[in-house]
Design the sequence.
């Protein structure tokens, strides 16, 4: 499996079945330039179509997860913003679960990027926020909509309308981060979580993401119909049998370790 070499993103595999995508513009706070956005989209396409990954981890190099939009791009043609939007939207479109490891400052477009992932692991003291309104703008890559669906309209309005910064610990209280750990443990914890997800049948993980995301905004009966249909058809008998055998083998290994 040949891993692509990109200018602004590093791809590696820290565990079996896990791809880690690291934003790699540390001198610019991993800010979202058009180049980084396109490299991120390329990394996600490779993960989706060419790797055997069952889960992905998204993080940043250095002191930042992502500082937001690259302000140097503002004078460039308007498709720059659409490059950023497309890369962020693509995170949701990738069938496998994506875990954000928010290991440093996460502002503006960086938080919008994290909100598009499936699970967020954050450092306890990292700084997070959507400060755009403080300089006469608004989050423009899906932040308000995704935030409102995650934490409710009242909290979303508070955070967008004030532009206030908050910590990873507060993010957990708000419902933005699912797991909070000491800052230096974020990436390891995210990889550990990804490794657990990767142990299970890929078809089941992909289907779980699909039915939860698609069913979230459907009427109850339609959500159940979608769920039942997807689960009943997500794998054939051979695939299910292979997954069951793998589960029994893991169980036997655990029993030996605990003996």
Sequence:
């Amino acid at each position: 499996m040949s891993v692509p070499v990109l200018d602004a993103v590093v791809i590696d595999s820290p565990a079996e079945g896990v791809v880690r995508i690291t934003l790699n513009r540390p001198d610019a706070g991993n800010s979202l330039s058009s180049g980084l956005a396109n490299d991120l989209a390329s990394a996600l396409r490779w993960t989706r179509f060419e790797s055997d990954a069952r889960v992905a981890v998204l993080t940043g190099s250095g002191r930042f997860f992502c500082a937001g939009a690259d302000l140097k791009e503002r004078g460039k043609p308007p498709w720059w913003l659409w490059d950023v939007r497309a890369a962020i939207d693509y995170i949701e479109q990738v069938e496998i679960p994506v875990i954000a490891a928010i290991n440093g400052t996460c502002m503006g477009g960086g938080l919008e990027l994290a909100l598009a992932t499936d699970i967020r692991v954050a450092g306890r003291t990292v700084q997070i926020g959507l400060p755009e309104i403080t300089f006469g703008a608004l989050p423009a890559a899906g932040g308000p909509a995704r935030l409102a669906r995650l934490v409710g309209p009242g909290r979303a309005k508070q955070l967008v309308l004030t532009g206030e910064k908050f910590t990873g610990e507060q993010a957990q209280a708000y419902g933005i981060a699912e797991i909070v750990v000491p800052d230096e443990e974020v990436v390891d914890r995210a990889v550990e979580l990804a490794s657990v997800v990767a142990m299970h049948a890929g078809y089941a993980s992909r289907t779980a993401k699909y039915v939860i995301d698609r069913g979230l905004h459907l009427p109850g009966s339609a959500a159940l119909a979608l769920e039942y249909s997807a689960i009943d058809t997500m794998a054939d008998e051979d695939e299910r049998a292979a997954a069951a055998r793998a589960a029994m083998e893991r169980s036997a290994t655990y029993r030996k370790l605990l003996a």
The chain has ten helices and ten strands. Residues 237-258 form the longest helix (22 residues).
